[in-house]
Amino acid sequence: MGVLAGSGTAGRILLTGASGQVGGELLGLLPSLGEVAAPGRGEMDLADEAGNFRALREMIRTVRPRWIVNSAAYTAVDKAEAEPELAYAINRDAVRVIGEEAQKIGAAVVHFSTDYVFDGQGSTPYVETDATGPLNEYGKSKLAGELALTESGAAHVIFRTSWVYGARGNNFLRTILRLARERELLRVVGDQHGAPTWSGDLAAMTVAVMRHCETESDGEPLSATVERWGGLYHAAGAGETTWHGFASEAVRQMRERKPGLRLAEIESISTAEYPTPARRPGNSRLNCDQLTSRFGWRMLEWQESLRRVLAVL
Question: Which of the residues are catalytic?
Answer without folding.
Answer: 138
